[in-house]
Amino acid sequence: MPLYEHVMIARQDLSNAQAEGLIEHFSTVLADNGGKVVEHEYWGVKTMAYKINKNRKGHYAFLKSDAPAAAVQEMERLMRLHDDVMRVLTIKVDTHAEGPSVQMQKRDDRERGERGDRPEGERRERSFDRGGDRGAAGDRRR
């Protein structure tokens, strides 16, 4: 069967237990239609980039499923009809990644960029040229 990943955003005024109850409800919908949820994660309440239905925050949930397309379509249909679910995203994947998702990993465990790679005490040189020779493109004097 094909593998899918789903992200669901539920209303912010639900309790954590109600949000996790939605995960269980939609897991049983998949199971009733011949699929199964391999793994699920509750990411908690997060602030969204923009308001959705007058909500600034939402309960985020992530599900990994192994289900036929008809079961996924039925689950998505019921999610879109449910009053507590604001958004749903489903992606078909080739394989499920092992371990926790990026959202569940601690910030310190993530790969750090240029800042984290510098040795202790070493700073980047900054050049503050306040006048000197700016060159032809940067010359603003007339």
Fold blueprint:
Elements: E1 3-11, H1 16-32, E2 36-52, E3 55-66, H2 69-81, E4 85-93, H3 114-117, H4 135-138
Antiparallel strand pairs: 1-3, 1-4, 2-3
Helix pairs in contact: 1-2
Biased composition (Basic and acidic residues): 105-142
Protein name: Small ribosomal subunit protein bS6
Function: Binds together with bS18 to 16S ribosomal RNA.
Largest sheet: 4 strands, antiparallel
* Structure summary, number of beta strands: 4
CATH topology of the domain at 3-96: Alpha-Beta Plaits
Shape: globular
SSE class: alpha+beta
- Average pLDDT, all residues: 81
Descriptive report:
This protein has helices at 16-32, 69-81, 114-117, 135-138; strands at 3-11, 36-52, 55-66, 85-93. The protein is built from four helices and four strands. It has a domain at 3-96: Ribosomal protein S6/Translation elongation factor EF1B (Alpha-Beta Plaits). The longest helix is centred in the first third of the chain and has 17 residues, at 16-32. It is an alpha+beta fold. The mean pLDDT is 81. Strands 2-3-1-4 form a four-stranded antiparallel sheet, with helices on one face. Strand 2 (36-52) and strand 3 (55-66) form a beta hairpin. The protein is globular and about 35 Å long. Helix 1 (16-32) packs antiparallel against helix 2.
